[in-house]
Amino acid sequence: MEYTIVVAETANSPATLQYLAPYIGAALAEYFMYCEQHTLIIYDDLSKQAQAYCQMSLLLRKPPGL
Question: One Pfam family of this protein, by short name (predicted)?
Answer without folding.
Answer: ATP-synt_ab
